[in-house]
Amino acid sequence: MSVQVIIYSSDRIRGGILKEILRRNKIGTLLLDKIMDVKSSISSHQPAIVIFDTTSSLKNEINFLKNLSSSIDDHFTIFVGDPLIINTLHDFHQNNIQKQDNPKIEGNLHNKIFLSDPLDPDVIISKSLDILYGYPENHEERQLLETDLRQYLKLD
Amino acid sequence: MATERTSLQERLEALKRAETGNNAVLENEKKDSNLENRMAQAEQALKKEVRSKDREEGELAETPSGPVGLDIGTSHVIVAQNERRYIRTTNQLNAFFTIPHSKFARDILVKNDVFFFEQDELYYIVGYSAENFANMFDTDTRRSIKQGLLCSDEKEGITVIQAIILSLIQKPKRLGEILCFGVPGEPINGIGSVTYHESIIKMFISRMGFTPISINEGMAVVLSELAEHDYTGIGISIGGGMCNICLSYLSFPVITYSIQMGGDYIDSSAGAVVGIPATRVKSIKERELSLIAKPTDRLTTALHIFYNELIKKLQKSMERVLSASNQIPMIAKPIPIVLSGGTAMPDGFTDKFQKALSQVRLPVEISSVYLAEDPLNTTAKGALIMAMTEEIPE
Protein backbone atom coordinates (compact mmCIF):
# COMPACT_ATOMS: atom_id res chain seq x y z
CA MET A 1 0.00 0.00 0.00
CA SER A 2 1.38 3.42 -0.89
CA VAL A 3 2.04 5.94 1.83
CA GLN A 4 -0.86 8.40 1.80
CA VAL A 5 -0.25 9.78 5.26
CA ILE A 6 2.97 10.40 7.15
CA ILE A 7 2.54 10.62 10.90
CA TYR A 8 5.14 12.18 13.14
CA SER A 9 4.71 11.41 16.84
CA SER A 10 7.36 10.97 19.49
CA ASP A 11 4.71 9.49 21.76
CA ARG A 12 4.66 5.80 20.84
CA ILE A 13 1.16 5.17 22.19
CA ARG A 14 -0.48 8.14 20.45
CA GLY A 15 1.51 7.51 17.28
CA GLY A 16 0.42 3.88 17.37
CA ILE A 17 -3.23 4.86 17.80
CA LEU A 18 -3.07 7.33 14.90
CA LYS A 19 -1.49 4.74 12.66
CA GLU A 20 -3.97 2.09 13.72
CA ILE A 21 -7.11 4.13 13.09
CA LEU A 22 -5.86 5.12 9.64
CA ARG A 23 -4.87 1.56 8.83
CA ARG A 24 -8.37 0.39 9.77
CA ASN A 25 -9.71 2.75 7.14
CA LYS A 26 -7.31 1.29 4.59
CA ILE A 27 -5.15 4.39 4.46
CA GLY A 28 -1.46 3.69 3.88
CA THR A 29 0.68 5.27 6.58
CA LEU A 30 4.23 5.73 7.67
CA LEU A 31 4.83 6.47 11.34
CA LEU A 32 7.98 8.34 12.30
CA ASP A 33 9.16 9.10 15.80
CA LYS A 34 12.05 11.38 14.86
CA ILE A 35 11.28 14.81 13.45
CA MET A 36 14.59 14.76 11.53
CA ASP A 37 13.31 11.87 9.40
CA VAL A 38 10.11 13.62 8.34
CA LYS A 39 11.48 15.86 5.58
CA SER A 40 13.27 13.11 3.68
CA SER A 41 10.28 10.78 4.04
CA ILE A 42 7.97 13.42 2.60
CA SER A 43 10.33 13.81 -0.37
CA SER A 44 10.50 10.11 -1.02
CA HIS A 45 6.84 9.15 -0.39
CA GLN A 46 5.01 12.33 -1.44
CA PRO A 47 2.08 11.72 0.91
CA ALA A 48 -1.15 13.67 0.57
CA ILE A 49 -1.27 14.36 4.31
CA VAL A 50 1.30 14.90 7.05
CA ILE A 51 0.09 14.59 10.64
CA PHE A 52 2.24 16.22 13.29
CA ASP A 53 1.49 15.05 16.82
CA THR A 54 3.23 17.56 19.05
CA THR A 55 2.70 15.62 22.28
CA SER A 56 5.96 14.71 24.04
CA SER A 57 7.96 16.81 21.57
CA LEU A 58 10.78 18.94 22.93
CA LYS A 59 10.94 22.70 22.40
CA ASN A 60 13.64 22.30 19.74
CA GLU A 61 11.53 19.73 17.94
CA ILE A 62 8.52 22.08 17.95
CA ASN A 63 10.72 24.83 16.45
CA PHE A 64 11.99 22.44 13.80
CA LEU A 65 8.42 21.34 13.13
CA LYS A 66 7.29 24.98 12.68
CA ASN A 67 9.88 25.58 9.98
CA LEU A 68 9.34 22.23 8.34
CA SER A 69 5.57 22.63 8.18
CA SER A 70 5.91 26.04 6.51
CA SER A 71 8.01 24.51 3.79
CA ILE A 72 5.55 21.78 2.80
CA ASP A 73 2.64 23.78 1.50
CA ASP A 74 1.89 21.24 -1.22
CA HIS A 75 0.77 18.76 1.43
CA PHE A 76 -2.22 18.90 3.72
CA THR A 77 -1.02 19.18 7.28
CA ILE A 78 -2.88 18.17 10.44
CA PHE A 79 -1.48 19.33 13.77
CA VAL A 80 -2.63 17.55 16.93
CA GLY A 81 -1.62 17.99 20.54
CA ASP A 82 -1.83 20.18 23.59
CA PRO A 83 -4.08 23.25 23.03
CA LEU A 84 -1.29 25.69 23.97
CA ILE A 85 1.12 24.29 21.40
CA ILE A 86 -1.59 23.98 18.77
CA ASN A 87 -2.60 27.63 19.29
CA THR A 88 1.05 28.68 19.00
CA LEU A 89 1.40 26.76 15.74
CA HIS A 90 -1.82 28.24 14.43
CA ASP A 91 -0.68 31.78 15.23
CA PHE A 92 2.72 31.10 13.73
CA HIS A 93 1.27 29.95 10.41
CA GLN A 94 -1.25 32.76 10.28
CA ASN A 95 1.45 35.38 10.87
CA ASN A 96 3.75 33.71 8.40
CA ILE A 97 1.13 33.83 5.68
CA GLN A 98 0.31 37.47 6.35
CA LYS A 99 3.99 38.41 6.19
CA GLN A 100 4.44 36.71 2.84
CA ASP A 101 1.56 38.64 1.26
CA ASN A 102 1.06 35.53 -0.76
CA PRO A 103 -1.82 35.41 -3.27
CA LYS A 104 -2.36 31.81 -2.20
CA ILE A 105 -3.05 32.89 1.40
CA GLU A 106 -6.47 31.30 1.63
CA GLY A 107 -5.29 28.09 0.05
CA ASN A 108 -2.28 27.91 2.34
CA LEU A 109 -4.32 28.46 5.44
CA HIS A 110 -6.93 25.96 4.38
CA ASN A 111 -4.55 23.08 3.91
CA LYS A 112 -3.58 23.21 7.57
CA ILE A 113 -5.85 21.75 10.22
CA PHE A 114 -5.31 22.40 13.91
CA LEU A 115 -6.83 19.88 16.36
CA SER A 116 -6.36 20.32 20.07
CA ASP A 117 -6.42 17.43 22.55
CA PRO A 118 -8.13 15.22 23.49
CA LEU A 119 -7.15 13.13 20.51
CA ASP A 120 -10.32 12.45 18.56
CA PRO A 121 -9.90 9.48 16.20
CA ASP A 122 -13.28 10.13 14.55
CA VAL A 123 -12.34 13.67 13.57
CA ILE A 124 -8.91 12.65 12.28
CA ILE A 125 -10.39 9.88 10.16
CA SER A 126 -13.12 12.12 8.87
CA LYS A 127 -10.67 14.89 7.91
CA SER A 128 -8.25 12.45 6.32
CA LEU A 129 -10.92 10.76 4.21
CA ASP A 130 -12.26 14.12 3.22
CA ILE A 131 -8.80 15.23 2.05
CA LEU A 132 -7.97 11.95 0.33
CA TYR A 133 -11.27 11.11 -1.28
CA GLY A 134 -13.43 14.17 -0.84
CA TYR A 135 -15.90 12.53 1.47
CA PRO A 136 -16.01 11.79 5.15
CA GLU A 137 -15.79 8.32 6.59
CA ASN A 138 -19.53 7.71 6.86
CA HIS A 139 -19.89 8.02 3.12
CA GLU A 140 -22.53 5.29 2.85
CA GLU A 141 -24.55 6.75 5.68
CA ARG A 142 -24.39 10.14 4.02
CA GLN A 143 -25.54 8.71 0.71
CA LEU A 144 -28.50 7.06 2.41
CA LEU A 145 -29.40 10.31 4.11
CA GLU A 146 -29.18 12.16 0.80
CA THR A 147 -31.38 9.57 -0.88
CA ASP A 148 -33.94 9.86 1.93
CA LEU A 149 -33.85 13.63 1.74
CA ARG A 150 -34.27 13.64 -2.02
CA GLN A 151 -37.25 11.31 -1.74
CA TYR A 152 -38.73 13.46 1.01
CA LEU A 153 -38.32 16.62 -1.05
CA LYS A 154 -39.54 14.75 -4.13
CA LEU A 155 -36.48 15.77 -6.09
CA ASP A 156 -36.10 12.44 -7.93
CA MET B 1 -14.50 5.92 12.97
CA ALA B 2 -15.08 2.56 11.42
CA THR B 3 -16.27 -0.06 13.85
CA GLU B 4 -14.76 -2.93 11.87
CA ARG B 5 -13.26 -5.55 14.18
CA THR B 6 -9.72 -6.49 13.39
CA SER B 7 -8.03 -9.78 13.95
CA LEU B 8 -5.91 -10.59 16.93
CA GLN B 9 -2.93 -10.62 14.62
CA GLU B 10 -3.40 -6.98 13.73
CA ARG B 11 -4.12 -6.04 17.34
CA LEU B 12 -1.03 -7.72 18.66
CA GLU B 13 1.19 -6.37 15.95
CA ALA B 14 -0.03 -2.92 16.88
CA LEU B 15 0.66 -3.63 20.53
CA LYS B 16 4.14 -4.82 19.73
CA ARG B 17 4.80 -1.71 17.70
CA ALA B 18 3.78 0.29 20.75
CA GLU B 19 5.99 -1.79 23.03
CA THR B 20 9.08 -1.51 20.85
CA GLY B 21 8.56 2.02 19.62
CA ASN B 22 10.40 1.00 16.48
CA ASN B 23 7.68 2.19 14.22
CA ALA B 24 9.51 3.37 11.16
CA VAL B 25 11.44 0.17 10.78
CA LEU B 26 8.41 -2.01 11.47
CA GLU B 27 6.37 -0.20 8.84
CA ASN B 28 7.76 -2.40 6.13
CA GLU B 29 7.97 -5.59 8.13
CA LYS B 30 7.48 -8.79 6.20
CA LYS B 31 4.61 -10.94 7.32
CA ASP B 32 6.15 -14.33 6.88
CA SER B 33 4.25 -17.55 7.28
CA ASN B 34 5.84 -18.23 10.70
CA LEU B 35 4.38 -15.01 12.04
CA GLU B 36 0.97 -15.87 10.67
CA ASN B 37 1.15 -19.29 12.31
CA ARG B 38 2.10 -17.82 15.64
CA MET B 39 -0.70 -15.30 15.50
CA ALA B 40 -3.22 -17.97 14.54
CA GLN B 41 -2.08 -20.13 17.46
CA ALA B 42 -2.38 -17.19 19.87
CA GLU B 43 -5.87 -16.45 18.60
CA GLN B 44 -6.86 -20.08 19.14
CA ALA B 45 -5.28 -20.13 22.58
CA LEU B 46 -7.53 -17.25 23.62
CA LYS B 47 -10.52 -19.54 23.18
CA LYS B 48 -9.09 -22.45 25.15
CA GLU B 49 -10.14 -23.33 28.66
CA VAL B 50 -7.57 -22.86 31.43
CA ARG B 51 -6.70 -25.88 33.55
CA SER B 52 -4.98 -24.89 36.72
CA LYS B 53 -3.13 -26.76 39.42
CA ASP B 54 -0.96 -25.97 42.42
CA ARG B 55 2.60 -27.13 42.43
CA GLU B 56 2.73 -30.19 44.60
CA GLU B 57 5.49 -31.08 47.02
CA GLY B 58 8.08 -33.29 45.41
CA GLU B 59 6.93 -32.38 41.92
CA LEU B 60 9.77 -31.59 39.53
CA ALA B 61 9.94 -28.28 37.68
CA GLU B 62 8.94 -28.49 34.04
CA THR B 63 11.08 -27.97 30.98
CA PRO B 64 8.96 -25.76 28.72
CA SER B 65 8.82 -26.72 25.08
CA GLY B 66 7.03 -23.59 23.88
CA PRO B 67 6.34 -19.98 24.84
CA VAL B 68 5.68 -19.29 28.51
CA GLY B 69 3.52 -16.74 30.32
CA LEU B 70 4.61 -15.84 33.83
CA ASP B 71 2.71 -13.89 36.45
CA ILE B 72 4.96 -12.91 39.34
CA GLY B 73 2.43 -11.73 41.85
CA THR B 74 2.87 -10.72 45.44
CA SER B 75 1.12 -13.82 46.71
CA HIS B 76 1.44 -16.33 43.86
CA VAL B 77 3.72 -17.08 40.95
CA ILE B 78 1.87 -18.65 38.02
CA VAL B 79 3.29 -20.23 34.90
CA ALA B 80 1.05 -20.63 31.83
CA GLN B 81 1.80 -22.90 28.89
CA ASN B 82 -0.13 -23.70 25.76
CA GLU B 83 -1.21 -27.31 25.38
CA ARG B 84 -2.98 -28.82 22.42
CA ARG B 85 -6.51 -28.51 23.85
CA TYR B 86 -6.15 -26.18 26.81
CA ILE B 87 -3.94 -23.67 28.59
CA ARG B 88 -2.18 -25.19 31.55
CA THR B 89 -1.23 -23.09 34.55
CA THR B 90 0.81 -24.15 37.54
CA ASN B 91 0.74 -22.06 40.69
CA GLN B 92 3.23 -21.68 43.46
CA LEU B 93 2.80 -19.64 46.61
CA ASN B 94 5.18 -16.67 46.64
CA ALA B 95 6.22 -17.00 50.26
CA PHE B 96 9.06 -18.35 52.35
CA PHE B 97 9.80 -19.41 55.88
CA THR B 98 13.18 -19.92 57.52
CA ILE B 99 14.24 -22.46 60.11
CA PRO B 100 17.68 -22.84 61.68
CA HIS B 101 20.18 -25.14 60.07
CA SER B 102 20.45 -28.64 61.62
CA LYS B 103 20.91 -32.18 60.38
CA PHE B 104 17.63 -33.25 61.98
CA ALA B 105 15.65 -30.46 60.27
CA ARG B 106 17.26 -31.25 56.93
CA ASP B 107 16.33 -34.93 57.17
CA ILE B 108 12.71 -34.01 57.92
CA LEU B 109 12.56 -31.59 54.96
CA VAL B 110 14.11 -34.06 52.53
CA LYS B 111 11.93 -36.93 53.75
CA ASN B 112 8.76 -34.85 53.23
CA ASP B 113 9.72 -33.56 49.77
CA VAL B 114 9.67 -29.98 51.05
CA PHE B 115 11.06 -27.45 48.57
CA PHE B 116 13.91 -25.60 50.27
CA PHE B 117 17.38 -24.19 49.85
CA GLU B 118 20.17 -23.47 52.29
CA GLN B 119 21.82 -20.11 52.86
CA ASP B 120 23.60 -18.42 55.79
CA GLU B 121 23.00 -21.26 58.24
CA LEU B 122 19.28 -21.21 57.52
CA TYR B 123 16.90 -23.40 55.55
CA TYR B 124 14.61 -21.40 53.32
CA ILE B 125 11.36 -23.25 52.83
CA VAL B 126 9.56 -21.77 49.84
CA GLY B 127 6.14 -21.99 48.22
CA TYR B 128 3.13 -23.80 49.64
CA SER B 129 5.36 -25.65 52.10
CA ALA B 130 6.21 -22.32 53.74
CA GLU B 131 2.52 -21.71 54.47
CA ASN B 132 2.20 -25.12 56.12
CA PHE B 133 5.18 -24.35 58.34
CA ALA B 134 3.86 -20.88 59.22
CA ASN B 135 0.49 -22.32 60.22
CA MET B 136 2.26 -24.97 62.29
CA PHE B 137 4.19 -22.28 64.19
CA ASP B 138 1.11 -19.98 64.29
CA THR B 139 2.98 -17.19 62.61
CA ASP B 140 3.20 -15.50 59.19
CA THR B 141 5.18 -16.45 56.13
CA ARG B 142 7.58 -13.90 54.67
CA ARG B 143 7.42 -12.46 51.18
CA SER B 144 10.06 -11.88 48.52
CA ILE B 145 7.74 -9.38 46.90
CA LYS B 146 5.88 -6.73 48.84
CA GLN B 147 3.25 -4.48 47.37
CA GLY B 148 3.94 -5.88 43.92
CA LEU B 149 7.64 -5.12 43.76
CA LEU B 150 10.82 -6.91 44.82
CA CYS B 151 11.12 -6.38 48.49
CA SER B 152 13.96 -4.14 49.66
CA ASP B 153 13.72 -5.10 53.34
CA GLU B 154 14.18 -8.84 52.69
CA LYS B 155 17.81 -9.14 51.55
CA GLU B 156 17.14 -12.66 50.31
CA GLY B 157 14.20 -11.50 48.17
CA ILE B 158 15.87 -12.02 44.81
CA THR B 159 17.22 -15.46 45.76
CA VAL B 160 13.79 -16.53 47.00
CA ILE B 161 11.90 -15.38 43.92
CA GLN B 162 14.46 -17.15 41.75
CA ALA B 163 13.96 -20.34 43.78
CA ILE B 164 10.19 -20.06 43.42
CA ILE B 165 10.41 -19.62 39.65
CA LEU B 166 12.86 -22.54 39.49
CA SER B 167 10.38 -24.69 41.41
CA LEU B 168 7.99 -24.22 38.48
CA ILE B 169 10.15 -24.14 35.36
CA GLN B 170 13.63 -25.09 34.32
CA LYS B 171 15.66 -24.19 31.28
CA PRO B 172 13.59 -24.33 28.09
CA LYS B 173 14.02 -27.15 25.60
CA ARG B 174 14.86 -24.61 22.93
CA LEU B 175 17.41 -21.95 23.88
CA GLY B 176 15.96 -18.45 23.61
CA GLU B 177 12.32 -19.55 24.01
CA ILE B 178 10.06 -16.57 24.64
CA LEU B 179 8.92 -15.96 28.20
CA CYS B 180 6.60 -13.03 28.79
CA PHE B 181 6.14 -11.88 32.37
CA GLY B 182 3.79 -9.36 33.90
CA VAL B 183 5.13 -6.13 35.40
CA PRO B 184 3.20 -3.68 37.53
CA GLY B 185 2.33 -0.18 36.49
CA GLU B 186 4.17 2.68 38.17
CA PRO B 187 2.68 3.12 41.68
CA ILE B 188 0.83 6.43 41.97
CA ASN B 189 2.35 7.04 45.37
CA GLY B 190 5.79 6.36 43.89
CA ILE B 191 7.12 3.81 46.37
CA GLY B 192 9.47 1.21 44.89
CA SER B 193 10.98 1.01 41.46
CA VAL B 194 9.25 -0.87 38.67
CA THR B 195 12.35 -0.47 36.48
CA TYR B 196 14.56 -2.19 39.08
CA HIS B 197 12.00 -4.98 39.61
CA GLU B 198 11.60 -5.56 35.87
CA SER B 199 15.34 -5.49 35.14
CA ILE B 200 16.26 -7.94 37.91
CA ILE B 201 13.65 -10.43 36.76
CA LYS B 202 14.65 -9.98 33.13
CA MET B 203 18.30 -10.69 33.97
CA PHE B 204 17.41 -13.86 35.84
CA ILE B 205 15.07 -15.14 33.13
CA SER B 206 17.72 -14.46 30.47
CA ARG B 207 20.23 -16.48 32.46
CA MET B 208 17.75 -19.38 32.50
CA GLY B 209 17.95 -19.47 28.70
CA PHE B 210 14.71 -17.66 27.85
CA THR B 211 14.19 -14.50 25.84
CA PRO B 212 12.32 -12.33 28.32
CA ILE B 213 9.69 -9.80 27.34
CA SER B 214 7.40 -7.95 29.69
CA ILE B 215 3.80 -6.84 29.60
CA ASN B 216 1.94 -4.51 31.94
CA GLU B 217 -0.24 -6.63 34.23
CA GLY B 218 -3.40 -4.64 33.51
CA MET B 219 -2.68 -4.91 29.78
CA ALA B 220 -2.33 -8.69 30.15
CA VAL B 221 -5.84 -8.70 31.63
CA VAL B 222 -7.13 -6.73 28.63
CA LEU B 223 -5.37 -9.10 26.22
CA SER B 224 -6.82 -12.12 27.94
CA GLU B 225 -10.40 -10.87 28.38
CA LEU B 226 -11.32 -8.06 26.01
CA ALA B 227 -10.85 -9.56 22.54
CA GLU B 228 -14.56 -9.13 21.84
CA HIS B 229 -14.31 -5.47 22.72
CA ASP B 230 -11.48 -4.86 20.29
CA TYR B 231 -9.06 -4.70 23.22
CA THR B 232 -10.63 -1.41 24.28
CA GLY B 233 -11.52 -1.14 27.95
CA ILE B 234 -10.05 -1.13 31.42
CA GLY B 235 -8.27 -4.17 32.82
CA ILE B 236 -7.77 -4.28 36.57
CA SER B 237 -5.76 -6.91 38.36
CA ILE B 238 -6.41 -6.90 42.11
CA GLY B 239 -3.78 -9.10 43.66
CA GLY B 240 -2.12 -9.61 47.00
CA GLY B 241 0.10 -6.56 47.03
CA MET B 242 -1.35 -4.10 44.58
CA CYS B 243 -4.04 -3.18 42.12
CA ASN B 244 -2.88 -2.74 38.53
CA ILE B 245 -5.00 -0.63 36.23
CA CYS B 246 -4.69 -0.28 32.46
CA LEU B 247 -6.92 1.68 30.11
CA SER B 248 -6.40 0.21 26.69
CA TYR B 249 -7.61 1.69 23.42
CA LEU B 250 -7.48 -0.65 20.42
CA SER B 251 -4.82 -2.64 22.28
CA PHE B 252 -2.66 0.39 23.11
CA PRO B 253 -2.02 0.79 26.84
CA VAL B 254 -2.97 4.47 27.03
CA ILE B 255 -2.90 4.73 30.83
CA THR B 256 -1.23 2.31 33.23
CA TYR B 257 -0.70 2.73 36.94
CA SER B 258 -0.91 0.84 40.18
CA ILE B 259 -1.90 1.38 43.79
CA GLN B 260 0.06 -0.49 46.42
CA MET B 261 -2.87 -1.96 48.26
CA GLY B 262 -4.37 -5.41 47.84
CA GLY B 263 -5.28 -8.62 49.61
CA ASP B 264 -2.28 -8.44 51.96
CA TYR B 265 -3.46 -5.08 53.25
CA ILE B 266 -6.88 -6.57 53.99
CA ASP B 267 -5.39 -9.66 55.67
CA SER B 268 -2.88 -7.81 57.84
CA SER B 269 -5.29 -5.00 58.80
CA ALA B 270 -8.09 -7.41 59.70
CA GLY B 271 -5.64 -9.72 61.44
CA ALA B 272 -4.21 -6.86 63.49
CA VAL B 273 -7.58 -5.74 64.84
CA VAL B 274 -8.76 -9.27 65.61
CA GLY B 275 -5.42 -10.60 66.83
CA ILE B 276 -4.95 -13.41 64.28
CA PRO B 277 -1.90 -13.88 62.02
CA ALA B 278 -2.48 -12.54 58.49
CA THR B 279 -1.66 -15.94 56.98
CA ARG B 280 -4.63 -17.46 58.81
CA VAL B 281 -6.92 -14.54 57.94
CA LYS B 282 -6.01 -15.09 54.29
CA SER B 283 -6.95 -18.74 54.38
CA ILE B 284 -10.28 -18.00 56.14
CA LYS B 285 -10.98 -15.16 53.68
CA GLU B 286 -10.31 -17.35 50.66
CA ARG B 287 -12.42 -20.18 52.02
CA GLU B 288 -15.56 -18.48 53.22
CA LEU B 289 -15.80 -14.72 52.76
CA SER B 290 -18.83 -13.35 50.96
CA LEU B 291 -19.35 -9.62 50.61
CA ILE B 292 -23.05 -10.17 49.94
CA ALA B 293 -23.83 -11.78 53.28
CA LYS B 294 -23.87 -9.61 56.41
CA PRO B 295 -20.81 -10.08 58.63
CA THR B 296 -21.41 -12.56 61.42
CA ASP B 297 -18.35 -12.15 63.61
CA ARG B 298 -15.48 -9.80 64.38
CA LEU B 299 -13.25 -11.14 61.65
CA THR B 300 -15.76 -10.93 58.81
CA THR B 301 -16.79 -7.45 60.02
CA ALA B 302 -13.14 -6.39 59.83
CA LEU B 303 -12.77 -8.01 56.39
CA HIS B 304 -15.85 -6.12 55.11
CA ILE B 305 -14.46 -2.84 56.46
CA PHE B 306 -11.05 -3.26 54.84
CA TYR B 307 -12.53 -4.50 51.55
CA ASN B 308 -14.63 -1.31 51.47
CA GLU B 309 -11.48 0.69 52.13
CA LEU B 310 -9.69 -0.99 49.21
CA ILE B 311 -12.61 -0.38 46.86
CA LYS B 312 -12.77 3.27 47.93
CA LYS B 313 -9.05 3.72 47.32
CA LEU B 314 -9.35 2.11 43.87
CA GLN B 315 -12.39 4.20 43.00
CA LYS B 316 -10.70 7.45 44.05
CA SER B 317 -7.49 6.59 42.23
CA MET B 318 -9.38 5.94 39.01
CA GLU B 319 -11.26 9.19 39.31
CA ARG B 320 -8.06 11.13 39.94
CA VAL B 321 -5.77 9.45 37.41
CA LEU B 322 -8.23 9.19 34.53
CA SER B 323 -9.62 12.70 35.04
CA ALA B 324 -6.16 14.26 35.21
CA SER B 325 -4.92 12.53 32.08
CA ASN B 326 -4.78 14.26 28.74
CA GLN B 327 -3.78 10.99 27.10
CA ILE B 328 -7.22 9.45 26.77
CA PRO B 329 -8.55 9.70 23.22
CA MET B 330 -12.21 10.46 22.57
CA ILE B 331 -13.86 7.05 22.81
CA ALA B 332 -17.19 7.00 21.05
CA LYS B 333 -18.73 4.02 22.85
CA PRO B 334 -18.89 3.13 26.57
CA ILE B 335 -16.11 0.73 27.52
CA PRO B 336 -16.10 -2.35 29.78
CA ILE B 337 -14.07 -2.92 32.93
CA VAL B 338 -12.79 -6.41 33.64
CA LEU B 339 -11.61 -7.36 37.13
CA SER B 340 -9.17 -10.14 37.88
CA GLY B 341 -6.94 -11.38 40.68
CA GLY B 342 -7.66 -13.36 43.83
CA THR B 343 -8.71 -10.32 45.85
CA ALA B 344 -11.57 -9.64 43.42
CA MET B 345 -13.00 -13.13 43.88
CA PRO B 346 -15.29 -12.99 46.92
CA ASP B 347 -18.99 -13.00 46.09
CA GLY B 348 -20.32 -9.48 45.81
CA PHE B 349 -16.99 -7.76 45.11
CA THR B 350 -17.84 -6.90 41.50
CA ASP B 351 -21.21 -5.40 42.48
CA LYS B 352 -19.69 -3.38 45.30
CA PHE B 353 -17.00 -2.06 42.95
CA GLN B 354 -19.52 -1.21 40.25
CA LYS B 355 -21.68 0.63 42.78
CA ALA B 356 -18.68 2.59 44.07
CA LEU B 357 -17.65 3.49 40.54
CA SER B 358 -21.11 4.79 39.69
CA GLN B 359 -20.63 7.43 42.39
CA VAL B 360 -17.68 9.12 40.66
CA ARG B 361 -17.37 10.89 37.35
CA LEU B 362 -14.92 9.37 34.92
CA PRO B 363 -13.90 10.89 31.59
CA VAL B 364 -14.97 7.67 29.85
CA GLU B 365 -18.36 6.06 30.02
CA ILE B 366 -18.41 2.54 31.45
CA SER B 367 -20.65 -0.05 29.80
CA SER B 368 -20.23 -2.92 32.26
CA VAL B 369 -18.06 -4.25 35.06
CA TYR B 370 -17.43 -7.96 35.21
CA LEU B 371 -15.15 -10.52 36.75
CA ALA B 372 -12.71 -12.36 34.47
CA GLU B 373 -13.56 -15.93 33.60
CA ASP B 374 -10.65 -17.32 35.61
CA PRO B 375 -9.50 -14.44 37.83
CA LEU B 376 -6.43 -16.15 39.30
CA ASN B 377 -4.93 -17.03 35.93
CA THR B 378 -5.89 -14.03 33.80
CA THR B 379 -2.51 -12.25 33.92
CA ALA B 380 -0.54 -15.44 33.21
CA LYS B 381 -2.85 -16.24 30.28
CA GLY B 382 -2.49 -12.70 28.84
CA ALA B 383 1.30 -12.96 29.20
CA LEU B 384 1.24 -16.33 27.42
CA ILE B 385 -0.80 -14.90 24.54
CA MET B 386 1.78 -12.11 24.20
CA ALA B 387 4.67 -14.62 24.34
CA MET B 388 3.05 -16.74 21.63
CA THR B 389 3.09 -13.86 19.18
CA GLU B 390 6.81 -13.19 19.56
CA GLU B 391 9.48 -14.73 17.41
CA ILE B 392 12.52 -16.35 18.99
CA PRO B 393 15.50 -14.16 18.05
CA GLU B 394 18.15 -15.78 15.88
Write the layout of secondary structure elements.
The complex is a heterodimer of chains A (156) and B (394).
Chain A: E1 5-9, H1 12-24, E2 29-32, H2 38-45, E3 49-53, H3 59-70, E4 76-81, H4 83-100, H5 105-110, E5 112-116, H6 121-133, H7 139-152
Parallel strand pairs in A: 1-2, 1-3, 3-4, 4-5
Chain B: H1 8-20, H2 23-26, H3 33-47, E1 49-54, E2 68-72, E3 76-82, E4 86-93, E5 96-100, H4 103-111, E6 116-119, E7 122-126, H5 128-136, E8 145-146, E9 149-150, H6 157-168, E10 177-183, H7 194-207, E11 210-216, H8 217-225, E12 233-238, E13 243-249, E14 252-259, H9 263-274, H10 278-288, H11 298-324, E15 335-340, H12 349-357, E16 366-371, H13 378-389
Parallel strand pairs in B: 1-4, 2-10, 10-11, 12-15, 15-16
Antiparallel strand pairs in B: 2-3, 3-4, 5-7, 6-7, 8-9, 12-13, 13-14
Quick summary:
The complex is a heterodimer of chains A (156) and B (394). By secondary structure, chain A is an alpha/beta fold. Helices cover 54% and strands 16% of the residues of chain A.
